[in-house]
Write a structure and sequence with these properties.
575 residues; Oligo-1,6-glucosidase, domain 2; five-stranded antiparallel beta sheet; 29% helix; alpha/beta; TIM Barrel; binds calcium ion; binds alpha-D-glucopyranose; Immunoglobulin-like
């Protein structure tokens, strides 16, 4: 077995904060940095050791801050650079670390670099973005290729002034930077990375990290007959110069001992993933693979029906992410939620009132028993769920959701049936569900904004705060929060086995139970999770059935020896 080096970020648990929706300190309906600072003690009390702040940079907010107009400034409603300096200091003062989102595949079209680039074909920054002439087909102007953007439509936007197209893999307001240009790369490192490393941040979550090198820009194969634009993720991800670019970035990061976790979509090949995260390759410390969160999604994410997956598929996705550390010097991550995903209880457990708490605890137990760095998204520790099905389409604010709904309307000439299906999918999978205000209490606005606030929160607060809020859960021993705290302590107490151990799925075909083992130099544990809403006999696979076992933890108080309750999870230590 390869023995990998113990770095601080391996044993860490990261808590992800979405600034707009965490806590509003001044009553304008938008979360802010002072709100985060005011709850650092709460965050620390969960038992996490690092916080990750989603983009708080200055931005026109077309894609909630993933469209950055100035890396060296803060979006004014969130606060100032001085507030960030205070947040960094206050986080460190509590013995925690802080990482930021590094969004450098693209900028906002309002960034000064793009404003210059678009101003003329001879501008010195013209080549900082990706410009191409039109193609003419039967005299009709067409974009340079047929690539489909991540938020629908073509990835190319025509620019009248200079009569060329520019590339944008996301919104038209998010032009892609040209990483082929060395001067551009140096400017990125200085402005987006060093500016904040010098201010003491401990690392970055690196947005869409595998898209910097685009490779050949030819047409993508036709996979959607009815559309002019075709899925091209395998073309614009993992291009030929990725290794070189990440190596360069790493030289800077290393000087600060900064950690990195890269977002790595469209990369099903585990060997490619390992190359990104193997210690000796000096690229990234770890990545977010999409295997687990993509479960049940359609070819175009929302082209599916709710819960369109089986438990064996879910388990096999987790197995793929766990397996990359077997006999390698690579490192992995564990996560079920983030700001781009609907809530895990709704997707993988059950948000029916009687099952919300049990399934939230079971998922917490599962996550805490898996190897790798663990990431928790704000509200997950409370068992927050998707917003109600009854909510109208006007409550969906995200470009991804609203563009999809518009696209379906346009493609089907407003077919009622098609729009109903689109909404059903969004009710289940939209990014909006993770972006509502955190439920702090039962007060006005669920305690997200001060009580005397006039402005409504930018997204509607959940109607179920009475049953799920941070204040109540902090004094309730039977709460999802209390169970997360207990599980994170259990994870620390059994760090070798639970964080670093070798994982094996002991019963991959079982459609009801998830049974996996963890081993570490003679120590062994087995986790059993009942993913159904009824009690199940505890039938352990032969490999472990005859070992002497001791119950380490169950998600249910007073659990029954031979029987698992609905959505119960357990960990046994084996002799
Ligand atoms: C990443 C972010 C997502 C954003 C996209 C474009 O996937 O997580 O929120 O929309 O990049 O920057
Ligand atoms: Ca505010």
């Amino acid at each position: 077995m390869t023995v990998t080096e113990r770095k601080w970020w391996k044993d860490g648990v990261v808590y992800q904060i979405y600034p707009a929706s965490f806590k509003d300190s001044n009553g304008d309906g938008i979360g802010d940095l002072n709100g985060i600072i005011s709850e650092l003690d709460y965050i620390r009390s969960i038992g996490v050791d690092t916080i990750w702040i989603c983009p708080m940079y200055d931005s026109p907010q077309v894609d909630m801050g993933y469209d950055i107009s100035d890396y060296e400034n803060v979006y004014p409603p969130y606060g100032t650079v001085q507030d960030m300096e205070r947040l960094i200091a206050e986080t460190h003062a509590r013995g925690m670390r802080i990482i930021l989102d590094l969004v450098v595949n693209h900028t906002s079209d309002q960034h000064a670099w793009f404003q210059e680039s678009r101003s003329s074909k001879t501008n010195p920054k013209r080549d900082w973005y990706i410009w191409r002439p039109a193609r003419y087909v039967n005299g009709v102007r067409k974009p340079p290729n047929n690539w489909l953007g991540n938020f629908g439509g073509s990835v190319w936007q025509w620019d009248e002034l200079t009569q060329e197209y520019y590339l944008h893999l996301f919104c038209p307001e998010q032009p892609d930077l040209n990483w082929e240009n060395e001067e551009t790369r140096k400017a990125i490192y200085k402005s987006a990375m060093e500016f904040w490393l010098e201010r003491g941040v401990d690392g970055f979550r690196v947005d869409t990290v595998n898209m910097y090198s685009k490779g050949e820009m030819g047409d993508a194969p036709i996979t959607d007959e009815g559309s002019e634009w075709q899925f091209a993720g395998f073309q614009y991800c993992n291009g030929p110069r990725m290794t070189e670019f990440l190596g360069e970035m790493n030289e800077i990061l290393e000087k600060y001992d900064a950690m990195t976790v890269g977002e790595c979509p469209h990369t099903p090949d585990p060997a490619r993933v390992v190359k990104y995260v193997s210690a000796k390759e000096k690229q990234l410390n770890m990545v977010f693979q999409f295997d687990v969160v993509d479960i049940g999604q359609g070819p175009y994410k929302f082209q599916t029906t709710p819960r369109d997956y089986t438990l064996p598929q879910f388990k096999s996705a987790i197995s793929r992410t766990q397996s990359i550390i077997h006999d390698t010097d690579a490192w992995t991550t564990v996560f079920l939620e983030n700001h781009d995903q609907a809530r895990s209880i709704t997707r993988f457990g059950s948000d029916a009132p009687e099952h919300r708490i049990p399934s939230g605890k079971m998922l917490a137990l599962m996550c805490c028993a898996l190897s790798g760095t663990l990431f928790i998204y704000q509200g997950q520790e409370l068992g927050m769920t998707n917003f109600p099905m009854e909510w109208d389409m006007s409550e969906y604010k995200d470009v991804d959701s609203t563009n999809y709904y518009k696209m379906v309307a346009a493609r089907t000439n407003n077919s009622e049936e098609a729009l109903k299906a689109a909404k059903a999918s969004l009710q289940h999978l939209a990014r909006d569900h993770a972006r509502v205000p955190l439920s702090w209490s039962t007060g006005p606005y669920n305690g997200f904004s001060p009580a005397d606030t006039k402005a409504q929160p930018w997204m509607r607060p959940l109607p179920d705060a009475e049953h799920c809020n941070a204040k109540q859960q902090q004094s309730d021993k039977a709460s999802v929060l209390a169970f997360w705290k207990r599980m994170l302590q259990t994870r620390r107490d059994h760090n070798d086995l639970l964080v670093h151990g070798n994982y094996a799925d002991l019963d991959p075909e079982n459609k009801d139970l998830y049974i996996f083992s963890k081993t570490w130099r003679g120590q062994k544990a087995v986790a059993v999770c009942n993913f159904t809403d009824s009690a199940k006999a505890l039938a352990l696979p032969e490999a472990v059935a005859n070992s002497k076992r001791e119950l380490l933890v169950s998600s249910v108080d007073g659990c029954e020896e031979g029987k698992l309750a609905a959505y119960e999870g357990r960990i046994y230590l084996l002799a």
